[in-house]
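Risk register update: the risk of archive-format incompatibility is retired. Evidence:
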Amino acid sequence: MMTVNIIGAGNVAYHLYRALSLSPKVKVLQVTARDYKQLEDFVTPKLINTDFSKIKDCDVHIICVSDSAIAEIANFLCGLKGLVVHTSGATSINVLHQLSRYGVFYPLQTFSKHRNISFREIPICIEAKHKNDVEFLKTLAFEISKDVREITSAQRKTLHLSAIFVNNFTNHLLHLGHEIVKQNNLDFNILKPLLKETMMKLEDMTPFEAQTGPARRGDQTTIQEHLAQLSEENQKKIYTELSESIQKTYGKEL
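Archived output:
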């Protein structure tokens, strides 16, 4: 039986707690955060801890806090024997250098509380100072995911940067599209089949191969008509810059 402590009360902590609690080979000993109310919605009451000086030792302490708070939290764990890992995509493993055993346990996914998600499909990127701890983290990760990869800090930062483009920026574009249809009294749901097919294409094609649209075709007439339809300067700027980026990408073909 592997014993685990979770430190944090945000989206990652919420989903890791749920996933690890379902494994018959993992026992969550404690979930720690400063605010009891942030934990009481999803953590068994007897496991809740709000005193960082009373964190119990265990096999793995998983820090699920904002990047800027990781080093501060690690200071509370210096006297413990267990392996300490953080879950950040953008933070180096070396932020935990003051500890004797440390690593990274990074689930590459976007998380929102109270939205059900299957951890089995989520890639978990692991890294550790000691080889034995790498193997231990693999064992733990495979308890909740079928996709576990040993990734260096440099590689993880690259993945995180790419994830910003494919997830965060894409979601912002969806927000802008939602605003455009809403402003014109149209139903955003009509676009959902298009969104599903856009994602499904990636099962068989690269994003480069899947690109369509007026910028891909070099259709300047349609591009100018679209720009004339947009009333907000920010939307015009984003449309123009993305169209120019697409045209540069396929310039030799146009």
